Amino acid sequence: MTEAKKSLRVTQVHSAIGRKADQGKTLKAMGLGKIGRTVELVDNPSVRGMIFKVKHLVEVEEI
């Protein structure tokens, strides 16, 4: 049997305005950029690192 890949639902809840430029670029790389936008991402170490970098701007939910 194949194991189902875990996913994360990431929602941007704060603006990147006034933050360091790399944080805004990280949001864009994740498919975010506007408050309220939600994306589903595969749960892996690289995505977790991106979330850690902008953890104060997003909400994360495991699905």
Any overview of this molecule?
It is built from two helices and three strands; from the N terminus they run E-H-E-H-E. The protein has helices at 21-29, 45-53; strands spanning 7-12, 38-42, 58-62. The protein has a three-stranded antiparallel beta sheet with strand order 2-1-3, with no helix packed on it. The radius of gyration is 12 Å and the shape is globular. The chain starts with 6 loop residues before the first strand and ends with a strand. The mean pLDDT is 94.
As an assembly, this protein is single chain
Shape: globular
- Could you tell me the number of beta strands? 3
* Structural class assignment: alpha+beta
Mean pLDDT, as a whole number?
94
Major pleated sheet: 3 strands, antiparallel
Write the layout of secondary structure elements.
Layout: E1 7-12, H1 21-29, E2 38-42, H2 45-53, E3 58-62
Antiparallel strand pairs: 1-2, 1-3
